[in-house]
Amino acid sequence: MDDATSLAQIHEPAAADPSSAADRIGAVVIGRNEGARLEACLASLRGRVERMVYVDSGSTDGSVAAARRSGAEVVELDRDQPFTAARARNAGLDAFAEGARPEYTQFVDGDCTVDAAWIEVATRFLDAHPRAAVVCGRRRERFPEVSVYNRLCDWEWDTPIGPAKACGGDALTRTAAVIAIGGYRPALIAGEEPELCLRLRRAGWEIWRIDAEMTAHDAAIHRFAQWWRRCRRAGYAFAEGAWLHGGAPERHWVAETRRALAWAILPGAVAVALAPLGGAALLVLSVYPLQVARLAARQGGVGRRASWERALFTVLAKFPEATGVAEFRRMRLRGGRTLIEYK
Predict the structure, then answer these.
(1) What is the pLDDT of residue 47?
(2) Is the overall model pTM greater than 0.70, yes or no?
(3) How far apart are CA 48 and CA 114, in angstroms?
(4) Domain limits of the chain?
(5) Which distant-in-sequence residues (6+ apart) come within 8 Å of 10 by Cβ?
(6) Segment 101-159, tens digit of pLDDT
(7) Of 61, 74, 135, 296, which sits 20 to 30 A from 125 (CA to CA)?
(8) C-alpha angle 97/101/107, rounded to 5°?
(9) What is the SS3 assignment for 312?
(10) 57-60 long-range contacts, Cβ below 8 Å, gap at least 24?
(11) What is the dihedral sign for C-alpha 116, 222, 146, 294?
(12) Secondary element (H or E) of residue 26
C-alpha cells in the first residue's frame, strides 16, 4: 500500500467510536504551574486514552491536586535535581508498569489541548505504518492575535507534511521504540524531541508529520524579554545538539549554530574593523535590512505584513541564539548546567 493511499484511508471518517483506540494508548502530560490550562489539557484526553500520567516539575499553584481530580496519575519530580522536559517525559514513561505499557504513548505539554479527532487519526496512521515510531500533526497557537511572538510560534509549528526529521513536544509515539533507544536524553534543557527522533531514525524508524489537527497551545509570550529568552534557549539547544551529533552524516544543528554566530558576530566585527573608513562600516551593516527584505520576499511577498514580521524576527533571533550558543560553550569549559525558561 503506497503512502498516498494510506493517508487517504486514515483521513476517512472512522465508523468506530473514538474510545476504540483508548485501551491501547497512554498519555504523558508534563507541566509546571499551568493552572486552568492543565485542567483543560487533561479534559481533552479523558476518555480517549486508557491512562493519563501527569508529571509535575515543582508546581506551587495546585496543579498536582487538580491533576488528581481530573483522573490522572501524578508523578512529582525530585526537586533536588534540575527540571527538564526530557526528564519529565521519561518519568511519565517509567510510570507505566513493565507488563502494562501501552502500545502507543501520546506526549503532550500541559499548556495544550488535544483535538478531539487526533488520537483516532494518529493511531490509525501508526497502525498503517509499522516503521513509523512518531506521528505528529498541526499544533496551533490558541491566541495568535495577542502578540507577534505568539504568531511567530504558530508559524514555526506549521511544518511540511510527510516524512520528517523531528517532532515537537506533542506527538503520538510507538512506546516500545522510544523505550528501546533509552527514551529522551534527560539532561537536555531544550531540543530533546529532535535529538530523540535522530536516534530513532538511526535505529531505522520513521518520523511523520500528517495533515491533521493535533493540539492547541497557549504560548503566552507577551513580552520581548520572553521571546529573547526563548531564542536564547534555542541557541543553547543548537550548540548542544551539534556537540552531541554534529558529525557526519547527520550534522545535527551544525548549520543552525554556525548561522547564529555568523549573523550575530561577523557583520558587526567587520563594521568595527572598517570604522575608520566611515561609510564603509554602514555599508556592511546594511546586510541586515537587506536580509530582512530577502526573507520577506521568500516567505510570501514584501506586501504582506506577516512576511515582514517573520523576516524581521528571523534575523533578530540570531542575536539571542548566538548568546545561547556562547552560554553552552562556556558551560562546557566551566562545568555545570543552565535551565533557561521563558514563561
Answers:
(1) 93
(2) yes
(3) 10
(4) 3-221, 228-334
(5) 121, 124, 125, 128, 210
(6) 899 999 999 999 999 999 999 999 999 999 999 999 999 999 999 999 999 999 999 99
(7) 74
(8) 110
(9) helix
(10) 57/30, 57/31, 57/32, 57/83, 57/88, 58/32, 58/83, 59/31, 59/32, 59/33, 59/34, 60/33
(11) negative
(12) strand 25-31
Q: 75: alpha, beta or left, given left = phi > 0 and alpha = psi -120 to 50?
A: beta
DSSP letter string over 182-225?
Answer: TSS-TT-SS-HHHHHHHHHHHTT-EEEEEEEEEEEE-----SHH
Q: Which amino acid is at 306?
A: A
39's grid cell: 485542567
Q: Which three cell numbers stand for residue 246?
A: 554534529
**For residue range 148-180, what is the model confidence (pLDDT) as tens digits?**
999 999 999 999 999 999 999 999 999 999 999
Amino acid at 95: A
Burial class from Cβ neighbours inside 10 Å (0-12, 13-18, 19+) for residue 337 reads exposed
- In the block, cell 527538564 appears at 84
Class of the CATH-defined domain 3-221: alpha beta
Residue 180 CA to residue 222 CA, distance in Å, equals 40
